[in-house]
Design a protein that fits this description.
CATH class of the largest domain: Mainly Alpha
CATH architecture of the largest domain: Up-down Bundle
Distance between the termini: 72 Å
Strand content: under 5%
Shape: flat
Order of helices and strands: HHHHHHHHHH
CATH topology of the largest domain: Receptor-associated Protein
Radius of gyration: 28 Å
Structural class: mainly alpha
Largest sheet: none
């Protein structure tokens, strides 16, 4: 009897899914294709080569995972949290990669300006300097220079083509680089002197940032210790007195207390990071 009910339930579920897909399947498919194209564009902006078919397959796998969770559990919290955790993990990985890539670009800007200075001293124009510099600069700044050259090749003025560096990696370093070189190109100023001053100021800024990071390393370590100390205390008490925390895990009030503790620990860790964050 139970097996018959399970088979009947599966057939009813399949019929319901068929009817839903027949009614709204086209609209859902078109929306999924648009979303996959949006994700693909964002990934390609960071030079992550992923085809639209793979992005659509990832979205389909995420949907299958959500359906699997819905069919295998009855806990509302797990049902709600599972797709959010999966999508959040993907977004977090992408944000971390994007931030690290931007940080590497900003670190390479003084080297790029040094190459521009050396080529302009030799009497080479800025456009020719870009062409010769491309092979000497490593990724990820190399891809950004290739985008600038591509904009120049399609007919954009040099200042407008250079603006893409700041638009794709918005920061003080790229803004100063864009404005200084653009003003030199527009007003005919001495580019090698301007580039040399900007390069020196950016190098001093990077040295000051590294010095401040070294000085605040102790504060960050203290934040890690203070954050992990309550967790270490919990494991130590559980090892010495097994079942000591069963009261917290066996009722709703205890679970709410534990959730509040974790939220406060996370808030404290973020506050410590904000306090010791170096600003130059």
């Amino acid at each position: 009897m139970r097996a018959f009910l399970i088979i009947l339930y599966c057939l009813s579920l399949a019929a319901a899914i068929y009817l839903l897909l027949e009614k709204w399947g086209g609209a859902v498919l078109e929306r999924a294709k648009r979303e996959s194209l949006t994700v693909q564009v964002k990934l390609e902006r960071e030079f992550i080569r992923v085809s639209r078919k793979n992005v659509f397959g990832f979205c389909a796998a995420l949907l299958a995972f959500i359906v699997f969770v819905l069919l295998t559990t009855r806990h509302v919290a797990i049902i709600v949290a599972s797709p959010l955790i999966a999508a959040g993990a993907f977004a977090l990985i992408f944000c971390i990669y994007s931030r690290r890539r931007k940080k590497r670009i900003l670190h390479q800007v003084p080297f790029f300006l040094d190459l521009v200075e050396s080529h302009t001293k030799a009497g080479v124009s800025f456009q020719q300097a870009l062409q010769e510099i491309t092979g000497k600069v490593k990724s990820p700044l190399k891809e950004e220079i290739e985008i600038i050259r591509g904009n120049i090749n399609i007919g954009l003025p040099l200042p407008d083509a250079l603006r893409s560096l700041y638009e794709r990696a918005p920061a003080e370093e790229t803004l100063i680089t864009y404005l200084s070189i653009s003003n030199c190109l527009k007003n005919g100023a001495n580019m090698k002197e301007m580039v040399a001053k900007v390069k020196d100021s950016l190098l001093l800024k990077q040295k000051a940032e590294k010095k401040m990071q070294a000085q605040t390393a102790q504060g960050k370590l203290q934040g890690v210790v203070l954050t992990l100390m309550p967790l270490a205390l919990v494991f130590a008490l559980e090892a010495v007195l097994p079942g000591y925390f069963n009261a917290l895990l066996s009722n709703q009030a205890g679970k709410l207390i534990l959730a509040a503790v974790f939220v406060l620990l996370l808030a404290g860790w973020l506050l410590i990071l904000r306090i010791v964050k170096p600003e130059v």
